[in-house]
TrEMBL record:
<keyword id="KW-0472">Membrane</keyword>
<keyword id="KW-1133">Transmembrane helix</keyword>
<keyword id="KW-0812">Transmembrane</keyword>
<dbReference type="GO" id="GO:0022857">
    <property type="term" value="F:transmembrane transporter activity"/>
</dbReference>
<feature type="transmembrane region" description="Helical">
    <location>
        <begin position="237"/>
        <end position="257"/>
    </location>
</feature>
<feature type="transmembrane region" description="Helical">
    <location>
        <begin position="32"/>
        <end position="54"/>
    </location>
</feature>
<dbReference type="InterPro" id="IPR002293">
    <property type="entry name" value="AA/rel_permease1"/>
</dbReference>
<keyword id="KW-0813">Transport</keyword>
<dbReference type="Pfam" id="PF13520">
    <property type="entry name" value="AA_permease_2"/>
</dbReference>
<protein>
    <recommendedName>
        <fullName>Amino acid permease</fullName>
    </recommendedName>
</protein>
<feature type="transmembrane region" description="Helical">
    <location>
        <begin position="139"/>
        <end position="158"/>
    </location>
</feature>
<dbReference type="GO" id="GO:0016020">
    <property type="term" value="C:membrane"/>
</dbReference>
<feature type="transmembrane region" description="Helical">
    <location>
        <begin position="206"/>
        <end position="225"/>
    </location>
</feature>
<feature type="transmembrane region" description="Helical">
    <location>
        <begin position="164"/>
        <end position="185"/>
    </location>
</feature>
Length: 278
């Protein structure tokens, strides 16, 4: 970003960047256009919860996992237009690709770990919980994750509308996964004794939790909106179809397999590792 800022010749004014608002979406108000478009800004924070999936393997997880989350911060033609140098543009693109590749490996690892944990707790078939003897990793769970991600990426070649529906559904489901524990934490901590963990914000927790719930609700609603009006088949947002399908699949999986097998997270393992045991 510093390179682009330094090499770009024609820069917009501060007035244009920080004050002016251009609504080309077709939505009648700037407010709706803002919230519909904010999903792009949120993309930089997509998957920051991945480290949580590795809680069972983390020593002193109650401290180290929140600490890791607090340090997460959120184009070739653009590079070329700014630098006017093919070599520099290619270098920046390679660096971007390297960062993306690293993020993808992190995504595969955390999602595979989530599948492994779900299988270990009885929510998925136990074969997905097996650890490879040589590599000491849940290889089958990782392969399932890798294949699923590849198939989703291939959708982009077939239909970009369907691909972006998956992206919108990802943010919606991510916010759902956030709002449930935050909401339960708020419910348990109001009007009753509640033991706080070592990583907490004291008296400000009610304010922060309330703001988080409101933020999650907004990001559950607006990513389902079409980005532009009038709505036609190519620009329709079908994320609600993906979300509904995933909830339906989870419901069928629960009643067809997990009911009676899945009794919740096995806390004894998590507590043991959090306390520093091997």
């Amino acid at each position: 970003m510093i390179v682009l800022l330094a090499t770009t010749e024609n820069k917009n004014s501060a007035q244009s960047v920080f004050v002016e608002f251009q609504n080309t979406s077709g939505w009648p108000t700037d407010g709706i256009a803002f919230w519909v478009g904010i999903i792009t800004a949120c993309a930089g924070f997509g998957g920051i919860h991945s480290v949580v999936m590795l809680s069972k393997e983390t020593r002193d997880a109650a401290n180290n996992i929140p600490r890791s989350l607090s340090f997460v911060s959120p184009m070739t033609q653009i590079y070329l237009n700014s630098t006017h140098n093919v070599s520099v543009a290619v270098f920046l693109q390679v660096m971007t690709f390297a960062v993306g590749a690293g993020a993808s490996m992190n995504l595969v690892g955390s999602a595979g770990r989530a599948i492994h944990s779900a299988a270990l707790d009885g929510a998925l078939p136990p074969v997905l919980s097996k650890i490879h003897r040589k590599w000491n990793a849940p290889v089958l769970a990782l392969l399932v994750t890798f294949v699923a991600l590849c198939l989703i990426c291939l959708i982009y070649i077939w239909n970009t509308t369907a691909f972006f529906a998956f992206l919108s559904a990802f943010f919606t489901l991510q916010m759902v996964s956030y709002i449930i524990p935050i909401g339960l934490l708020m419910y348990r901590s109001i009007g009753r004794e509640f033991e706080l963990g070592p990583w907490q914000i004291g008296r400000f927790r009610v304010i922060v939790h309330t703001m988080s719930v409101v933020w999650c609700v907004l990001l559950i609603i607006f990513p389902s909106f079409p980005t532009t009006l009038p709505v036609k088949a190519p620009n329709m947002n079908y994320s609600i179809v993906i979300v509904t399908g995933i909830f339906a699949l989870a419901t069928v999986l629960y009643f067809a397999y997990a009911r009676g097998r899945f009794t919740g997270l096995k806390l004894e393992t998590l507590v043991g590792i959090s306390a520093g045991e091997n």
